[in-house]
Structures are given as structure tokens and as C-alpha cells.
């Protein structure tokens, strides 16, 4: 029996192909996905995409891992103090070493958004600040209306999981969350509920890469 | 004048987008807007006039992530 450390990237790809089919895995491998934010949403989205063998992840976040983040974000005690993008890179490489990770330890703004993410097939907004969410969304969709954006809004508090949905407000803009539960009014974020929103976002990305509608099930 | 906002008909006083956001008590820094099929940058709100029958989709963002 082989140990975990002896499994190569290509062996992991073969296992993914056996499970999901060569066509799907090829779509994932040839994709480039941008991730703006590596907190509660971003760290969970990145793990889901890496487990499916996504080709390239461009991740930008200015923050460092703090102890308080461990209550919600996919980091570890021995990573406290590291830039989040570097801690995330290390974690993703332990999941699938074939994933190419471009880590940008800086603050995303309207001024650098297109420079950072101009090459991606799909951009994911994974910020916590609502002003930053709105700024990224307006800037991206006005500049690249044909390039999908998967955002999130409304996941604070401990409301029912089933309130979290994926919808398409307009154009190629997909939005995950309950739409109203703000951290400002609901008080706190639960790892479980933020994780549901994050996996709605990851699933929207995967369905887009497969040529499927993230909102409607069009299969017969 | 009557506008369609997020699928519902609304009668409003404002004649430009910035005034509409004020009338709806929405913070322009926390929304994304599509106006008659076109997605706008935040710096376009003041200069975007509104006309009878215009269609708007307004997404309001809340904190957390």
C-alpha cells in the first residue's frame, strides 16, 4: 500500500478522471479562476476548487492569519502570522500539487482589479466588506460584462442553511447568500453558514466550467 | 415617473440615479446597478438620467465573508 506522500499530481488527476470523467477534468485543468479574498469564503472556495484539480488559481488578499480566523477560515494554528495567500498556497499544494497558485499579498481595488485578474475565465468575489464587494462587482462587470463574476452577500448569523441560495441578478453576475443577513446587524459569522455560501460559490464556478447554468437545473 | 426596479413597478420622484438611491435610502457605495441592460460603474450614477419605463436591477451588498 502506498503512503499519502507518494501520490503524484498526475495520479490525483487520474483518480479525478475515474470519478468525474476526462472531459470534466480537462475543463477544470484548463481553467483559470480568480479569487478576490482569502478569508472565510475564499479559503473554503479555494479548497473545493483545488480538490477538483482546477488549473490555475490567482488569489489576492492583503491580510495575515490571526488566531480569531481559525473559528471560520481554513487555516491552522501553526500558520498564525503568515500572509493568508501564502498559508493558502501551502494548504492547496497539500491537497493537489498540480494546481498552479498565483498568490498576491495585496489589497484588491478598482485600480488594480483588471491587472490582477484580467486573464481569468471566472472571477470570484470573496471579501467581507460590503463596500469592497460593491466596488469590485461594479468595476468588473462594467469592464468585462461577458466574463462571469460569482459573488456573495448575506451569510452572517445562524439562520437556516436553506436560506442561502445562488441567483443571477443580471448579466453574467451570480450572487450567493441570503441577500440580507449582514455581519453589522446579525453580529457574527458561523463557520458552517459561511461555508455553505462558499460552497455555493464553488459550485457556481464548477457548473460554469462544465457549461451548466449555476442557477437552473436544465438537465432532462 | 414609473420605473421597474428589481422586477416591480415603482413610482418615484428622482430624475437621476444618484437621486433615486437617496430616495430609496440606499448607500451608493454598497450597491451594484444594471440600468436598461447596462452595468454601471459607481462614478456614473450622478450622470445617469432616468426616463419613464426604465428598468433597473439594484443589488445591495451586506457585510460578511
Please, could you describe this protein's structure?
The complex is a heterodimer of chains A (220) and B (65). Chain A is α/β, with parallel strands linked by helices. In chain A, 39% of the residues lie in helices and 15% in strands. Chain A contains eight helices and seven strands; from the N terminus they run H-H-E-H-E-H-E-H-E-H-E-E-E-H-H. In chain A, strands 3-2-1-4-5-7-6 form a seven-stranded mixed sheet, with helices on both faces. In chain A, strand 1 (32-36), helix 3 (40-51) and strand 2 (56-60) form a beta-alpha-beta unit. In chain A, helix 1 (9-20) crosses helix 2 (22-29), helix 3 (40-51) packs parallel to helix 4 (84-95) and helix 3 crosses helix 8 (191-209). The radius of gyration of chain A is 17 Å and the shape is globular. The termini of chain A are far apart. The mean pLDDT of chain A is 96. Chain B is mostly beta strands and 65 residues long. Helix content of chain B is 11%, strand content 32%. Chain B contains one helix and five strands; from the N terminus they run ββαβββ. A five-stranded mixed sheet of chain B has the order 2-1-5-3-4, with no helix packed on it. Chain B is globular. The N and C termini of chain B lie far apart (38 Å). The mean pLDDT of chain B is 97. Chains A and B meet through helix 3, helix 6 and helix 7 of A and strand 3 and strand 5 of B.
Amino acid at each position: 500500500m502506498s503512503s499519502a506522500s507518494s501520490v503524484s499530481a498526475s495520479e490525483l488527476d487520474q483518480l479525478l478522471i475515474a470519478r468525474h470523467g476526462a472531459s470534466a477534468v480537462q475543463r477544470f485543468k484548463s481553467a483559470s479562476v480568480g479569487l478576490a479574498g482569502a478569508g472565510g469564503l475564499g479559503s473554503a472556495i479555494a479548497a473545493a476548487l483545488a480538490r477538483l484539480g482546477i488549473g490555475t488559481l490567482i488569489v489576492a488578499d492583503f491580510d495575515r492569519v490571526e488566531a480569531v480566523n481559525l473559528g471560520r477560515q481554513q487555516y491552522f494554528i501553526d500558520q498564525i502570522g503568515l500572509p493568508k495567500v501564502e498559508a493558502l498556497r501551502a494548504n492547496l499544494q497539500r491537497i493537489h500539487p498540480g494546481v498552479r497558485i498565483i498568490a498576491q499579498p495585496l489589497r484588491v481595488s478598482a485600480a488594480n482589479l483588471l491587472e490582477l485578474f484580467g486573464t481569468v475565465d471566472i472571477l470570484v468575489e470573496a471579501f467581507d466588506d460590503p463596500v469592497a464587494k460593491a466596488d469590485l462587482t461594479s468595476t468588473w462587470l462594467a469592464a468585462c460584462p461577458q466574463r462571469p463574476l460569482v459573488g456573495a452577500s448575506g451569510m452572517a448569523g445562524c439562520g437556516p442553511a436553506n436560506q442561502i441560495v445562488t441567483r443571477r441578478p443580471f448579466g453574467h453576475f451570480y450572487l450567493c447568500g441570503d441577500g440580507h443577513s449582514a455581519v453589522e446587524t446579525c453580529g457574527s459569522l458561523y463557520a458552517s453558514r459561511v461555508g455553505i455560501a462558499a460552497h455555493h460559490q464553488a459550485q457556481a464556478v464548477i457548473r460554469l466550467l462544465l457549461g451548466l447554468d449555476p442557477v437552473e437545473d436544465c438537465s432532462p | 415617473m414609473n420605473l421597474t426596479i428589481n422586477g416591480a413597478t415603482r413610482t418615484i420622484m428622482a430624475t437621476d440615479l444618484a437621486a433615486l438611491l437617496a430616495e430609496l435610502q440606499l448607500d451608493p457605495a454598497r450597491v451594484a446597478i444594471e440600468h436598461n441592460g447596462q452595468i454601471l460603474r459607481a462614478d456614473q450614477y450622478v450622470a445617469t438620467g432616468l426616463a419613464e419605463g426604465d428598468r433597473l436591477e439594484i443589488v445591495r451588498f451586506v457585510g460578511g465573508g
